[in-house]
Write a structure and sequence with these properties.
disulfide bond; Immunoglobulin-like; alpha+beta; five-stranded mixed β-sheet; Neural/epithelial_adhesion; immunoglobulin domain; transmembrane; CD47_Vset; single chain; 2 domains
């Protein structure tokens, strides 16, 4: 729905997991001041014709048979002002945690991927330098577990974490029109890491107490030496 305010450029993502027919419609708001606009549909920079038209809406029908039909489709309305709306046809995105996963040695790390549509296949990778290595739980059952909780949700578990497990992991969902992936960053900390601030505070307290104690001993010795000198002067 286009309001018709000058400079408006609406964006909408459309997930397409498998070959299908898609209908895209731009409808001008009834209260818009933009009257009888000239309408152009484009795929990227290529002009295409719309297949149907009413008084305030313009529609194109697409047959998405392979990945070459994915991309950006825009309707441009020109009159006293120019407004536009763009539909981004793409394979479904993978939902997952964006922030780094921070845990400790010996713990369990869990990564979960979810998609809007069920993919044909899931795959997990770990980064080894600049290369990706496929994670195969059957070859190391004591380290990795992959669980398909449902058709559109996949879960990776990394057991008995060590510092060497820190790094970047990827999950990939394969659809008939292409694949989508998600990046995870794992940071494994030493079990001593949470104690470091506490140890630092304790060390500062010990240093402070030791300094005060030494100062008191020094002051007491100076006082005793002063009393001895006073007694000697009195005797003299």
């Amino acid at each position: 729905l286009i309001i018709g305010v000058s400079g408006t450029a609406l964006q909408k993502n459309v997930s397409v997991g498998s070959p299908t027919k898609v209908e895209l419609t731009c409808k001008l708001d009834e209260n818009s001041n933009l009257k009888n606009p000239q309408v152009t549909w484009k795929r990227g920079s290529e002009t295409i014709s719309h297949t149907s038209k009413t008084q305030n809406s313009w529609t194109i029908q697409l047959t998405i048979s392979d990945s070459s039909h994915l991309g950006s489709y825009s309707c441009i309305l020109k009159g006293e002002v120019e407004v536009s709306a763009t539909f981004h046809l793409q394979v479904p995105k993978i939902e997952g945690k964006e922030k780094p996963i921070i845990t400790y040695e010996g713990d369990l790390a869990v990564m979960v991927c979810k998609t809007e549509y069920a993919p044909m296949n899931w795959a997990w990778y770990m980064t080894n330098g600049t290369e990706r290595v496929v994670i195969n739980p059957s070859s190391d059952t004591n380290k990795f577990r992959i669980k398909r909780q449902s058709a559109d949700v996949n879960r990776l578990e990394i057991l008995k974490l060590t510092k060497e497990d820190s790094g970047v992991y990827w999950c990939e969902a394969a659809f008939r029109l292409g694949s989508s992936e998600r990046r995870f960053e794992l940071k494994v900390l030493s079990i001593m890491a949470p104690l470091k601030p506490f140890i630092a505070v304790v060390a500062e307290v010990v240093i402070l107490v030791t300094t005060i104690a030494l100062y008191e001993v020094y002051s007491k010795r100076k006082e005793e030496e002063g009393e001895r000198e006073f007694d000697q002067i009195e005797q003299l």
